[in-house]
Amino acid sequence: MFLTISTTGDLERPATDLGFLLHKHPDKAQAFSTSHGTAHVFYPEASAERCTAALLLEVDPVALVRRGRGKGTDGAPDAALAQYVNDRPYAASSLLSVAMSTVFKSALRGVCQARPERARTPLPLRIVVPALPARGGPELVRRLFGPLGWRSLEAVAVPLDERFPEWGDSRYVRLVLEGEMRLADALRQLYVLLPVLDDAKHYWVAPDEVDKLLRAGEGWLAAHPEQKLITQRYLSRRRSLTLQAARRLELVRLAESDDLDVEHVDNAVDETVDTEERPVPLAEQRRTAILDALRAAGARRVLDLGCGQGQLVQALLKDVRFTEIVGVDVSVRALTIAARRLKTARMGERQAARVTLQQGSLTYTDKRLQGYDAAVLSEVVEHLDPPRLPALEYAVFGSARPRTVLVTTPNAEYNVRWETLPAGHMRHGDHRFEWTRAEFRDWARGVAGRHGYGVEFLPVGPDDPEVGPPTQMAVFTTAPDDGPRPRAGIRAGAGTGHAPGNEPGTEPANGSPDSTEKEVEAA
Question: If we measure between CA atoms, which residue out of 459, 460, 418, 410 comes closest to residue 436?
Fold first, then answer.
C-alpha cells in the first residue's frame, strides 16, 4: 500500500520544505506502528529543485483479522471472502487513510511552526497512488477529484493481466494528481476519497465519523456535486449518520453563500437553556462513583466483571492511571458491541495494550482473573439466580481475590420513587431479585467475613431520607499482602437476601463479626 507526494522548488523556496510540512526529515527513513501494521515514511529524492515523500503501509493480515474487521459485514468485501489472502496489504483503502491521519496528523491540520507561510501557500504538487480500488472505475475517480481544482488528473484502469488483454481491466486505478494546492487540502481530499472509492471501511463507523468527515471536507465537500455519494459511502450507508451529515453540510453551504459563520445561520434558540437543568443519568452517576472508589483505592489494574457493552471500560480508558483494564462478559454479542464502542480496530498500539475483552462466566473460577488490584461487579449480581450467588462469591472473592471489589446493585426500597414502575415490579425484566439495603448489607457482610475482606457501604445517586439511594454500593477491601484463603463453608441458601451469619469452622478477620467492616450510614 503506497503513495507518493512530490513538489518542486528553487534555492529561495526549496522543495525540501516538504519535510517541514510533513514533520518528517528528508534524510531519515522512519517507521510508525499502527493498529494493523507498520507505516514507513521515506524520501526517494530530496533536493532544492525536487522532493518526493513516500508513505508505505505494511499491513499485517493476521492483525487485521484479530482486530475484528477481517470478516463480516463491517470488513472489506475482499477480506470477507478470504481472511488472510486479499488485496488489503496492497490497495489504497481506509487503512491508508487511517495511517495518513496518524503519520501526517499535523500536516492534515495545516500546522507547521517552522514554515507557517508554506503551510498556508499552495504548492506545486504531484500525488501518485499506484493501486487505488475504485468501485465505479476511472470515471468515478474523475467525478470525485475533477471538481477539486487539480490542473491534471490521470486515472488509468489497471489491466487484470497485461499479457492477456482480453481479460479486461481490474477494479484498480492508477491515480496521478497534479496542480497547485495547499498540502493540507490535498491530504484531506485523499483522507476522505480513498475509502469512498474503495466503498468499504476496515472499522465500525461510529457517530463521530460525521465530525471527521466534516473536518476533512471543510472548504470543498459542501459544494461538491457528488456530495451525496461521498457522504453515503464514507459513512457506510448508515442512514441516520448520512442524514445528519447532509443537514450540517447544508448549513455550511448556506453560510458560505451568505459569507456568514455557521453559528449565525444555525441560530435557533434553545428555550431550555438557563431555565432547566438536565438531571445526570443514574448510569453516569454510578460510573462516576465507581471511578472515584477505584482512584481512592489506588487501583491500576482493573477487572470489569460483567462488562456488558463496555461503558465502564470506556470510562476507565480515559484515565491513564488505569494501566490495564480487562472486560469480561459471557455474552459474545455484548463483547462485540463493546469492541465497536471502544473502537479497538483503530486503537494505537499503546492504547490497545491497556485493554482486553474476553469471554467468561463469573460463576466459574478463572486463573486469568488473578492478581489484579480491583474488580467491579456493576449491576451484575441481580441478574443471577440466588442459588448461583455462592459460586460467583467464591470465583471473585475466593479465587480471583483482588485487593478491592466494588459491587453495585439496585436498592429495592427506592423503586417506589419511580413513577413509571408499577408496584411490585423490578426495574429490569432480567432481574432475578432486587435487595433492600438491609438484605444487601447482610449479604455483603457475610461475603466479607468468609473471605477476609473489610466492607464499606456508599450511596449512589440522591440519598432519599426515607428509602435511601437508587443504587447501593459495597466497597470490599483486603490487605495488599493478604494471600489466598481456603474456601469457607457456604450454606446452600447463601445469597438469597438473608443474613448468612458466621459459618461453623470459619472466623471473620480479627475475630469479630463486625471488625472487618466500616459503614458509611445514609445521611
Answer: 410
